[in-house]
Request: fold
Amino acid sequence: MTTAFEDPFKREHLRAPRQLESRQHWMDRGEQAELLRSVLGTSGGHKAFNLWLRWRHATWINKWGQPMDIRPARMLLGVHDVLNFLEEATAHEPSHGRRVTRGTALRDPVLFHATQAFLQAFKKHRGHVEATLAALGLKGGKGRPVGVPSL
Reply:
């Protein structure tokens, strides 16, 4: 099929999942650390980020619709914890001498993907916490997730 006869919305819809999964759209650790420090420096940023992590952790389900993880969510403790937090977010399962590749399982995929999503939205909205929460599907103001009564 040529591009003249393709539906542009369908083409973007089919391309979107691959773009999210590809490694080229992941932020590097230095950029993540810089953004996390700026999140912590903004008013309400620390609380909003931890709220997002709790909500994302509570709503993460597997392909069968079952809750993925029962462990408590890992929270960001402060500026002193940024590098340790990122180390845990990007940690892979032991490779037992094999090279760590894209297919290697993350130790905590919820933490990794939730951190990536928040930081990408925060960057896109140029450091505005309320806009970031709205983009992620959380209400501004009260800061509670849409459709979830309380955490």
Summary: The mean pLDDT is 76.
